[in-house]
Specification:
The protein has 274 residues and is of the alpha+beta class. The protein has two domains: 98 residues, Beta Barrel (Elongation Factor Tu (Ef-tu), domain 3), CATH 2.40.30; 170 residues, Threonyl-tRNA Synthetase, Chain A, domain 2 (2-Layer Sandwich). A six-stranded antiparallel barrel has the order 2-3-7-6-5-8. α2 packs across α3. The chain is globular, with a radius of gyration of 20 Å. It starts with a strand and ends with a strand.
């Protein structure tokens, strides 16, 4: 089992770790700050620094799989290609320093938190989502059109309000008693440990914006998300989706990602379709 340090502190950028296993899939560590692909959020990238100062580039992080193909509690750090010499120098038991690509991770944290704000503004079940470094997509289970001006204003208001975000947990029994906490129709919270990790935006005793089970990484305050911009929207049935991009002069997603869009600003956009 990999000790997932990011669960308790998403702002950890580095950690010392011991190599548990190396196989064709990648490198398994005893502990890590790297988030593995899951729950719609992309896996982290970065480097593993060796004792001699050399750095192995990690292109992705995934959950290991058992012989039946089911995910386990071990995380595989997937090396970028053409690093055979560095890989050959590693063996189980070696100590490395795991170091995140922090700029990329922070974008993921901002996007993921923003997607929770959209769940507050559009209180319907979610068909699916994709959180990437370039954009966030949420597919809402609805046929009514989304008002992009209302959502853009709502996002700006929630970001400016600087709502705090806290991570907690509820028991499996508490979740069973409150099934409405689960917003996603396609992804269920992981079970089996007796408790389920939760994310709360807003003050529990005051203005609670969102509260739901979530294993992803988030910013500590909505003000950290940054500014929002919106282009023209387009209707589409039977579900509605919201695409969001925040920040300052980030590269636009590839054109095919936005094939249904009518107008797109190349680096700052909020896309709404219905």
């Amino acid at each position: 089992m990999t000790d997932d340090l990011f669960r308790a502190d998403a702002y950890l950028r580095t950690c010392e770790a011991r190599i548990v296993r190396i196989d064709d899939a990648g490198i398994v560590l005893d502990r890590t700050v790297f988030y593995p692909l899951g729950g719609g959020q992309a896996g982290d990238s970065g480097v593993l620094a060796l004792a001699d100062g050399r750095e192995l580039v990690i292109a992705d992080t995934r959950k290991a799989k058992d012989p039946e193909g089911q995910p386990t509690n071990e995380f595989v750090h997937v090396p970028a290609p053409e690093q055979a010499d560095l890989l050959a120098a590693l063996k189980p038991g070696d100590t490395v320093t795991a170091r995140l690509d922090w700029e990329r991770r922070h974008r993921l944290m901002r996007f993921h938190t923003a997607s929770h704000l959209l769940c507050h503004l559009v209180p319907v079940p979610v068909n699916g989502c994709s959180i990437t470094p370039e954009y966030a997509r949420i597919d809402f289970h609805m046929t009514d059109p989304l008002d992009k001006d209302v959502l853009t204003a709502g996002l700006a208001r929630l970001v400016e309000a600087a709502h705090p975000l806290t991570v907690g947990a509820i028991t499996d029994e508490e979740l069973d008693a409150n099934p409405g906490l689960v917003k996603s129709m396609s992804v269920q919270p992981p079970r089996g440990l007796g408790t389920v990790r939760t994310v709360r935006i807003g003050d529990e005793a005051g203005a609670q914006i969102d509260f739901q089970p979530c294993g992803g990484t988030h910013v500590a305050n909505t003000s950290e998300i940054g500014g929002w911009w919106s282009p023209r929207s387009r209707r589409r049935a039977p579900t509605a989706g919201a695409w969001c991009s925040v920040g300052h002069r980030w590269p636009a997603p590839p054109p095919e990602t936005f094939r249904n869009i009518l107008e797109l600003r190349p680096s700052r956009m909020l896309r709404l379709t219905a």
